[in-house]
Amino acid sequence: MPAKKHRDKGDKSAAIADPPPAASEPEGPPPPEPRPPVRVLYCGVCTFPVEYCEFGSSLTRCKEWLHEHDLEAYSKYYSDEALQAKIGTLSLEAQSKLEQETAKKEAKAEAKADAALKKKLASQVTIKRIERNKRKHVTSIHGLEAFDIDLKKAAKQFASKFATGASVTKNPQGLEEIVVQGDVSDEVFEMIEGEVGILKGIPADNVEIVEEKKKKGGD
Predict the structure, then answer these.
(1) CA-CA 20 to 30 A from 31: which of 39, 50, 131, 143?
(2) Between 167 and 111, the higher pLDDT residue
(3) Would you list the DSSP string of the chain?
(4) What is the pLDDT confidence band of residue 160, given thresholds at 50, 70 and 90?
């Protein structure tokens, strides 16, 4: 009997498992904290990031836009302190030259913009009602591109509006125009006048409707 107790005690001690080893600490520095995304403010005039407006040709208008939309950013780049810190190391001669170049660049850009505006205002949009045969007509619209209208998008808009075919083709003079199936000349004029969809920025006085009838004996 004593021997039996000795064996039971031995078995019990043998059944006790060793404790698991402690987890080792990772070596090296902790991973860096994730950085928040960088905020980039784009100018509404030149479309550059605002800190690069000075490399464009419309700095004065860019500064006016920034002053109106983000006063904090304006102060950061164009306050007296910021400008002084920026050009403080330049000589008076270099500062004067920089100002003259900037003014010259802006004047050139403004002159170019004025010329483009005058050309646009002198442009004409012609809506032509064309007779194919007896009661069938098509409507051509020429001159929209002078007002920065995307012809393919405009043709798609006409096709959707009138539920008919509309495509961009070249006229006998080799110029692109939109041809819409059916007599929709008055409706097209109303869309332009009302600046519907992408048809914006076209003065009604610059739009005319003409009619082209089929010649007798012709196709």
Answers:
(1) 39
(2) 167
(3) -HHHHHHHHHHHHHTPPPPPPPPPPPPSPPPPPPPPPPP-PBPTTT-SBGGGGGGSS-HHHHHHHHHHH-HHHHHHHHSHHHHHHHHTTS-HHHHHHHHHHHHHHHHHHHHHHHHHHHHHHH--EEEEEEEEETTEEEEEEE-GGGGT--HHHHHHHHHHHHTS-EEEEE-TTS-EEEEEESS-HHHHHHHHHTT-TT--S--GGGEEEEEEPPPTT--
(4) very high
